[in-house]
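Quick one:
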Amino acid sequence: MTTGVVVTGLGLVTAAGVGTEPAWRAVCAGKSTAATDPALSGLPVDFSCRVPEFDARALLGRRATMLYDRFVQLGLIAADEAVADAGLDPATWDGTRVGVVVGCGVGGAGTWETQHATFRDDGPDRVSSLLMPMMLPNMVAGHMGIRFGATGPNLMTATACASGATAIGVARDMLRQGVCDIVLAGGTEAAVVPLIVTGFSRMRALSTRGESPATASRPFDTDRDGFVIGEGSGILVLERADHAAARGARVRARLVGYGASADAYHATAPDPAGAGVERAVRAALLDAGAVPSDVDHVNAHGTSTPLNDLAEAKVLARCLGHGPAVTSTKGVLGHTLGAAGAIEAALTVLTLENGLIPPTANLESQDPEIDVDVVTKEARRHPVGLALTNSFGFGGQNAVLAFAAH
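Output:
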């Protein structure tokens, strides 16, 4: 049993602010959110794309700061927006037909770091009894189930920086198979903490352009030197098309394809030949019943690392030619790790809706080895009927989603 799958709600929390609108405005303006981060003071890399301060108690209830790690808070706030945007009332839905699939690469890093310091300095008796339920990566999906009375399948995906996109693909499969009528799907991450940043810094994955953080993330640029770490969350409400039609829901886009693969090459480096990525791209096209010339736009993984950007661009040129307009929104929002694929999926839906392709921030001189049509300087007005969004993670895990205009 299969059915079409549609997007009826979007929710975003990013370094541009709480809500979908601030994120969309920021990426269309091409203005970076990276800035010096006081929490990283003294580290070799001391800047990030951090979500601006928000009142968790006001948004989630008075116990939010006691019970939820920051990654859970970001995920729940995005989910609240997505459910409201979809015009759904959890008090009236059949919770047994509602699932949750959320991706996360790290989990409760802030809680882990704080409680480890307590353990080290004050002893085991001072460690919080809430340590485990706050830090476990699956708890964001668990708390969404509790918050919305969603008692269908409740899953967490962990494919590193592809986690959010993988979650959307898994949710799509559940809907196609008739397991659920509605799934809250996406990703969340709040790993901008000293230990995690130091780990990425030690492996030379981060940009070191600390004298100018706002220009540090520069996907596809000749002078790119690494990514800028960020945090955030993106949640999409996905529905069976027949269920959405029956309730008269607004359809924002159709999720028509999903492709996944493994490089089986290296723990952290991409396969320079791009064989795994190519399989995922071609699988998503096949699943969508599309051919390369149908693709108008690609929201690229585009991390601003030398190896990743070049490998991805070569695959896009080989699979799709020079036709699609390519962008990377990480130039504005940074790399949000396990949340990135979901945030970028939501931005791809907005691109389809608005016929407006955001620019790639900070791209001053495109790498001459990158032979694709990268949007630069300003947003490009262009009708988009079919778009791909790519996500790749450590371990060589690849996920490609295909969205079509409704």
